[in-house]
Design a protein that fits this description.
Two copies of one chain form a homodimer.
Chain A: E1 7-9, E2 15-23, H1 25-28, E3 38-39, H2 50-68, E4 78-83, H3 89-98, E5 102-104, H4 111-124, E6 131-137, H5 139-146, E7 162-163, E8 166-173, E9 180-185, H6 200-219, E10 228-231, H7 235-248, E11 258-260, H8 261-264, H9 271-274, E12 278-279, H10 281-297, E13 303-311, H11 315-319, E14 326-334
Parallel strand pairs in A: 2-3, 4-5, 4-6, 7-12, 10-11, 10-13
Antiparallel strand pairs in A: 1-9, 2-8, 6-8, 9-14, 13-14
Helix pairs in contact in A: 2-3, 6-7
Chain lengths: 337, 337
Amino acid sequence: MLQGHQTWVFSSRPVIISTAAVGGPFEARGPLAEDFDLLHGDLWLGQDSYEKAEKKMLEEACEIAIKKAGLKKQDIQFFLCGDLLNQIISSGFAARTLGAPFLGLYGACSTSMESLALGSLIVDSRSGNNVVCGTVSHNAAAEKQYRYPTEYGAQKPPTAQWTVTGAGVALLSSGGEGPRVVAATIGRVVDMGVSDPFNMGGAMAPAAADTITAHFRDLGVSPGEYDLIATGDLGRVGFEIAADLLKKHGIEIPGGRFTDCGLIIYGENQRQEALAGGSGCGCSAVVTYGHILNRMKKGELKKVLIVATGALLSPLSYQQKESIPCIAHAVSIEYGP
Amino acid sequence: MLQGHQTWVFSSRPVIISTAAVGGPFEARGPLAEDFDLLHGDLWLGQDSYEKAEKKMLEEACEIAIKKAGLKKQDIQFFLCGDLLNQIISSGFAARTLGAPFLGLYGACSTSMESLALGSLIVDSRSGNNVVCGTVSHNAAAEKQYRYPTEYGAQKPPTAQWTVTGAGVALLSSGGEGPRVVAATIGRVVDMGVSDPFNMGGAMAPAAADTITAHFRDLGVSPGEYDLIATGDLGRVGFEIAADLLKKHGIEIPGGRFTDCGLIIYGENQRQEALAGGSGCGCSAVVTYGHILNRMKKGELKKVLIVATGALLSPLSYQQKESIPCIAHAVSIEYGP
């Protein structure tokens, strides 16, 4: 690998042999409902806390993906996962249930592609097989930790986003049938001085543009390489900024080929609540492992680039007047002959 | 790699071309003071919060290791790091300063070896070179987040441990001179139902025993393979439990070859404060990258196994009466002809 490059090319092209997307009641009302494997009618999942509900959703996603692949828990060699909760407790507890060797990750909402990138490295280097990569977020658990109790009904500005209640996992294998992971670009931390946690899309946009630019530079390809480039959860505000920044970098993505998972997960009828769009670890995970991979399997898309974006702040760093360091990891996936 | 195995063997043996260990005032009073590259006389490091002091310590460790290797920041291809603070803000902010592509990790106090294992995988698979792997913890920042304000002076039981104020990093390269990383065993989550956060050593001991057992099984070697096996931060109570469990698994480590970083970092004169011993992400990192690697360079040790242990709880999971899921990752390091 060349010095200065930040992209891994996986020569064996690890196979996503199965995926699972689990969602909550708000996601069930959205336009991508049919792409979920399981949707829950309420936020509690029969648990006595939102945190336990979040963990349960992740466990369900793991179980579904393993079952769809015709495997058993014992066949899973590594579990790579992270989430938004302090000390990534959802992932830690789900790892206890799964029983597989566990690598805990934290990349905020970029965790979906951080785990897929590292999982692909493990499979590609023959350091493991049947690797589960995933992440989860829960709207009420995230609101409780990051903002006000939802019962308080605090108003939010239109730049704010709606944390997705959803778990998405992919099961990676060295062989078999399914979409294949081609390459991954690991992002740098980019911080343009934005400190408003109600405009995380705006804060994350430069990180997305930085990683997309690095991806094209490292591989020497142009945007035309991809049928779809999807950012993770920039929402309406951040997505426009990212598109503008890319233009300034000389990167023009052809119309209709550039989208954001946070923009497509909810419909116009949900806009009053979702404001600028979806966000959270689960956002890019459920949209990619549900909707986008389904479109690939239908033959609508052959090659996609998923650019998961993360805002690496904490409530404490915000209170201490720090700006928001952001990151984006990109993974390219191909399907078809 | 065999199904069911959890150990990576690095055929190229990535080289630790430099390390850095930075510590605080309490560490400066301990028996390993001479093994630190930098010791601070107060906990603040000239910053206005303990969190910022923690971040600064990590930045200093990165800077020292890069300088010792005769490299520049721009030469670093990847940065793998995590810490104990919510949303691993110390690592995220240090990654912003370093500017290298960043993979955020969370393994509680096992993060030191999680990052070294993944960094070695990256170098060994030729997916990157000059990779900085590290972690940090800060006594006052940890107490503030996990327990009571220190000013409150809450009493602790003798099983409690003292969070190390320290940052430890290793710079990994495909060539050069230094100790070499031979193999890494990724741990499973083990939870024996302990729920007392003032006895984390006891909670973590079964995870340490599980990973050590897996390491010997996967590689088909015996404890005699190593001149030293050091667990991360089990402390007095957990270390004894781990030794007992290993005996029950039929693993007898010869006398004097088994130790715990949390036991050796503080002296008898510090026992009243440190109670059962040191803990925290920084504990195994500074002891390994300072003291143990220095002993290797002096020719006192040829091959060591570092078993970093982590307790994957959060204050919230404790309040919700969950037990403590624990994990341990082991990395073997060799030095000499």
